[in-house]
Predict the structure.
Amino acid sequence: MLKFIIRRFLVMIPQLALLSILIFLLAKAMPGDALTGSMQANPNLDPKVFEELREKLGLNDPWYEQYGRWIGNLFQGELGMSYIHKVDIADLLGDRMANTFWLGLVTLIFTYLIAVPLGVVAGRWNESWADKLIVGYNYVSFAIPLFVFALIMLFIFGFGLHWFPIGGSVDVTVEKGTFAYFLSRIHHLLLPAITAALLSTVGTIQYLRNEIIDTKLKDFVKTARAKGTPEKKVYSRHIFRNSLLPVAAFLGYDIVFIIGGSVFIEQIFSYPGLGQLFISSINQRDFSVVNILVMLFGFLSILGTLISDIILSIVDPRIRID
Amino acid sequence: MSTPIVEKNNISLQQQKTPSGFSVIVREFAKDKLALFSLVLFLGIVLYVYIYSFMLDQEAITRVDLFNIFAEPSSVYWLGTDYGGRDVFGQLIIGARNSLTIGIVITVLTAIIGLVLGLLAGYFGGWVDNVIMRTVDFILVLPTTMIIIVFVVIVPEFNVANFIFIMSIFYWTGKARLIRSKTLAERELDYVSASKTLGTPNWKIMLFQVLPNLSSIIIVNMTLNLAGNIGIETGLTYLGFGLPESTPSLGTLISYSSNPDVMENKWWVWLPAALLILVMMLCINFIGQALKRAADARQRLG
Amino acid sequence: MKKGKWKFLSLLIVLGLLLSACSSGTSGKKSEGQEGQGSEPELVDPSSFPKTVVNEETEIDGGSLTYALVSDTAFEGILDYAFYESSPDAEVISFFAEPIFAYDANYQITNDGESAAKFEMSEDGKTMTVTIQDGVTWHDGEPLKAEDYAFSFEIIGHPDYTGVRYGDALISGIVGMEDYHNGKADTISGIKILNDKQLTITWEEANPSLLSGIWSYAEPKHHFEGIEIGDLASSDKIHTDLLGFGPFKVTNIVPGESVEYEAYENYYGGAPKLDSVVLKVVSPTTIGEAIKKGDVDIASFPTDQYDKDYVPTNFQYLADMDAAYTYIGFKLGHWDAEAGVAVQDKDTPLQDVKLRQAIGYAMDNKSVAERFYQGLRVPATTLMIPFFADFHNPDIEGYSYNTEKANQLLDEAGYKDVDGDGYREDLEGNEMVFNFASMSGGETAEPLANFYIQNWKDVGIHVQLLEGRLHEMNSFYDRVEGDDEAVDIYQGAWGTGTDPDPYGLWSKLAPYNYPRFVNDKNEELLAAGHSEDAFDQEFRKDIYDQWQQLMVDEAPVIPTLYRYYLMAVNNRVKNYSIEAGSELGWEDVAVTAEKAFVEE
């Protein structure tokens, strides 16, 4: 077991190294640099000024030198400066990371709150009308484009009913640290979280349903039934336990999935998290930030799959042979 | 969006036997009227879109007409016009064709790559398996959405071919993993070792003995991926990293709804495209489910 | 004008105009329910909109107001005049910091009206004496001093300065500035502090743009004490721990999304009427709803969402002309970076002025303005925008839509359709196809580009989109600026700022002269336009009249559209004005009801 975990950790290192080189090269290959935008907006200024600035910022050095400098600094915990925001990237990420983290967490909670009961119901009474309804919902949530659904939610609950704020992460007039502040934050992330959760349930529901239907027909269940165990107990004792455990293993994959979706959700709900920062940074050619963000997301993905693999290897030892 | 599903199916399918055969599928569809209806409807849409789009004059449809901006649906413009005065119905047909082509080609491409590499890895094992699977692991952990966006920004000429290429780089891995694990299981079975002792060359065993046994799983996986691949194109277009407007796609039409005025008052621009996607995705999913049941003896209806 | 929302425009440039053109929603498209085919659209006359909010109610005591910063990204948070680079940041700054001078309707500094400082010019026009007024204090109570103003020049000129303000002629042209910038001197010899409240600034040469282009912001020197100038950009002091002397002070800031301001009771122009202002970022997608629901009181309204058939019940529109224009440019040469000069040497049929003129006449900008923009943009005539009312010549017609004339010009010049494919061939009878580069972003971008291509096709000129698509801003400017051979025609836009001098855009020595147009008469007129003689308004007007005509005749670029911008203001707001030179500033803005009105 321990050996497996250590091996999985060791695999992470070359993955991260490769990822960092890939990202850095991609960022360098993008047209324009961090100064292109301000040049266009400042026609009265001498372009020589920008040449000087490029030199000052080291944008003219060969890529491997820039990469070496970047990776060296990373190891010292220095993420570098944002060209656009002119602040340390660590500072820039701070608040937004927290925003994305909370949004992700709440989304995850909602996802399971919705998916587990539905999956169980659909599996236990499969081919019933409830099952058909749930499967129908599953199809629709899989088929509907995320942003169309998000926009509709925003229009109905944000504008129409006025239940939720239409953007931001917190009300600026509330004092930090108070209970009202906490409530305001929750209030701001509820709508995006529910929206994302409603569309993230597909995998879990489908899996649970299949698994329960499968387990129903397994020998040990049949034996239990034959022994006269009450139906309720058959489910709670034998079937659910066997089917729910693997669901926990998907936690990691779900994290990866929700991270990917944050790019869309945050953009639509004007929620200032990492996903929104990514889109604006790429549009403004703020490479240093783009690099760090993709690194960070890559790292989280690796971590997510790691968690899943470890849980899986506990639940289902066959995987460990991998 | 399809990734988690693939992952999870992967595991649930792992211990299944794979009896296949055309007759089983036919029987399954005959039992499941919804799947049959979906199949007919989907094929109908595909045929209509492909045939009709060839009769349409794309240049005429994308011609900007300042005097017909946001015309409501009428006998001339069945689905009205967009903000450039262009016929929405024509764009819907051409867009559906483009989106379908993209979805299908990506699915087929990734299936081929995944199949070849998965077969090789699973059949031979050893260092071949190692190299392939480490690559797969690496691509799987990449933050795909973000890297694709970065790619899109870099590519100088962004068209359907490039789009398909970029997407295919990232979306073959799930399949490779699935095929590999199935092949691993098949390899251990008696018929393979029997063939081996008889001296049948490896490629023949792979192609004519192992592959047919995997076909049903491949088909199930492909249908589900097809739905996902169509969806991705739409999402990227919304964020502004999709295909250029000169190449109409369903994503382009739907993304017009990001203007609240269009969303609320000009429904004819985006709603038909959204519904078309929804209908097609549902069809594909129902078909996929039926195929899956056909592949899995225990769930069969008939 | 005293202080207020306009002052960030008095900076050298309208920042972000081009940036905003690439963010979705800001550069617009028309959204209109068209009735019959080909019917005359009912046009909006943007000049009929008020520039000052109309509200006869009595104001309530205090109150709070919500200001929407309309942007689809978070604001960057570089909240200092010497360092900020984007217009959202400038909007955030404008509440708590302001220029030391007042501006008049022509965007020139003036001694009339209330301001933190008064000025006096010497006879030779080279030296300015600035006197800080009594009673002007920073929000921490420290008085505003002459050294604070001098300090802002010391920041911008400093060798370690990382912002983009250095290089403007009115900054680098100060006596001794070059030496200071190169590290040869520790002080700027041309800036002399006479006492706590007075200083003089001397320039190498007199410049008629001085009054509109002078750098007019002070920096709180005591606030920045102990921070190296190289580190200033990343310091807290310009991101979160902010200090200004404007009517409002910052009390709370959620980086990137919202700011809370509170009235500064000791403001030299009198205590503000509002108790507080909340500024929050609202995406262009949702701003229309936010305004209708009373979620925000004041917002710049995306012109592409304007619907002339909608009669607002709870808010009103204000509109004014933007300091910007869109144009079609012809790539005629390349930039010689060594010599720092444009060379007009490209081998292209577009060197033929008649061809360029024909292309100009073929474009139906009137329809574009009316149909795409519901009249919120108007066909452009000359390169001197009407925003500069003193210099724009309304008698020059420019290129109005006239296919007959375009065809006639082409026929005369000898461009004939030899092979009968509907497109004219060049003078040797070879096929003639031009690549058209245009920026993506803003929903109309694509149909607009295609509409022009159709226009040109109508007179037989074959133009195609470069690589069959629009280009994203960064790659667009990479190509146009880099004189990419493949680009023949491009569509660009300039924010002119408040200085009318076009030298920096169209001289052969200007790198921003993207067409690489070289013409002796042009150089002569441009030079005369900012010579010492040009202090004489009549003379300058005459020069610029000639220049406008010359640029129309030579047609290295064809201006296409002038634009208006819209503000939406809730009906409870009083004393809010976007008019240049208005006496009304943020301290005068009041509300007449506790809560914002909601759509009925």
User: Anything to note?
Assistant: The CA atoms of residues 79 and 89 of chain B lie 5 Å apart. The radius of gyration of chain B is 22 Å. Chain B has one domain: 25-295.
